[in-house]
Predict the 3D structure of the following.
Amino acid sequence: MRTYALRRIAQSIPILFIISVMLFFMVRSAPGGPLTAARRNPNISKEQIQALEEKLGLNDPLPVQYGRWLHDMLSGNLGDSIKFHRPVNEMIAERIPNTLLLVGISFLVTLIAAIPIGVWSARKPYSKFDYSMTTVTFIGQSIPVYWLGLGLIIIFYVTIKNPVTGNPFFPVGGMNTQGRSGDVLDLLWHLALPVTALSLGWIAWYSRFLRSSMLDVLHEDYVRTARAKGAADNVVYYKHALRNAILPLVTLIALDLPSLFAGALFVETIFSWPGMGRLFWDAAKGRDYPVLLGVVMITAVLIIVCNILADLAYGWLNPQVKYD
Amino acid sequence: MIEREQSMGWLITRRFFKHKLAGIAIGVLAILVFASALAFVAPYSPTDQEPTNSFQKPGIQHWFGTDELGRDIFTRILYGSRVSLTVGLLSTFLSIAVGVIVGALSGYFGGWIDTILMRITDAFLTLPTIFVLILLAGFLREQQVPWLQNSVLVVIIIIAALSWMWPARLVRGLFLVLREREFITATRALGGSHLRIIVQHILPNCIGPILVSGTLQMASAIITESGLSYLGFGVQPPTPTWGSILSTAQNQVFRAPWIAFYPGLMIFITVMAINYIGDGLRDAFDPYVIHAD
């Protein structure tokens, strides 16, 4: 197990290397390079720019520059934001917990909804419930998350108001009402609409997957054995069958991580949720390259780590898998 | 009595239309393609502004109403469907072309070719797609290359650049199974070249799964294009797209909430139709799907 984990980590190094080279050359070949803003500034003379180039090492050969950039990255220095003059590390560290909170809660809601839907559809395949769920999941998979978010805002913020106070039912911006930071109930109230927007598509996708995975498992002999022993239906489905049916889901979720982050970016943008997606969107509008690169690099590492964890979890959940 | 022999294509078509919703979906898409081709018939311009006519509610004059600049939303949506369908189709085509080449080389030759290509594929799969899309869109448009000033083309390229990995993995898997089959050994014994074996003997057996995954990709390409345009990093104004109509609608949710409804509905209907076509194709090809086991 430990050797397997180490080997996976070793395997991910070339992947990270490829990603870092791609990103580095993209930034370096951007017109004007990192000093574009300085060049446009009339208060900075040509000599000063040359001095800056010398100081930042922009005249060195590209591989040398790459080496220095990589060294900075590895020592945890992602540079400073051009717009805010703050270390990128700090800015990202502030935002990661908010994104993880949003994605985490949405994922929890997704599992709570998708598991019973998937199991029930597989329990009575081609029943009325199964057919209606098929339609609902097709709808859920086809609704773009940004349209759903906008629709929720229009319905629950613009149109329907609390008849007593005349205020909207749900807030649509930020994480807290002013002066109520740290209040968990207030936070959950702010989470309601973003989480709904984010999890609906996921519920559709994962319940569908779980249905077919359950159908595969239900044909197995051990399920029949459990039934023959006289185990209650719920025990057969949730204890015996689900345990195996859920295994491929672990791998699927790991593969889906990039698109889960994409959903989060849209929701954070629409609901002004102060997460990494929102940070990235703001930085992209201002072409704040250090922030953009920092976010891409950190999420890439996050995705790779989660992939390794998923592989290890798969082995832990399924003792048949042998690592060598 | 001799039964009339049925061609494979005819069999698959018949099976496809047995899936009623897939048949309806084909009809819906056909109407959409037809309408977008005939968009010039519309009495309004998709881009000319007429500020005195802004925020008209949907009615007989303006079926979907007008936006803040007095432009007819129905007309803009018709023109927008051209962009969405073009991007969806071409980016899928490009991504499958790249994916098939990578997957075929990797699966057929194996060894170090496979190792290198699959490492690169894995690297692309771990990229946080949406972030890189936005980064690439801005980056490519900043280049002083004339043909990159066309934002539709940029969107097609970047979507394909970040989605070829799925067909590549699919095709590689199919090739790994198929290259061990007897008919390939026979072709090899007869002296068939690698190119001939790949293109004429293995690839035709992969058409079904490739088509099915192509529909999934096209659906997601349309959602991605609209999303990028919605965020302001996709197709640039004044070209109307469903995503950019949606993003102007977002600023007007208090004055004219109905605007947000139509472009999203169009994305939804199109994506749903494509998904159902994919479902129909899966059913139609099912007996021929090669299961990797």
The two ends of chain B are 39 Å apart (CA to CA). Chain B has one domain: 26-38+62-292.
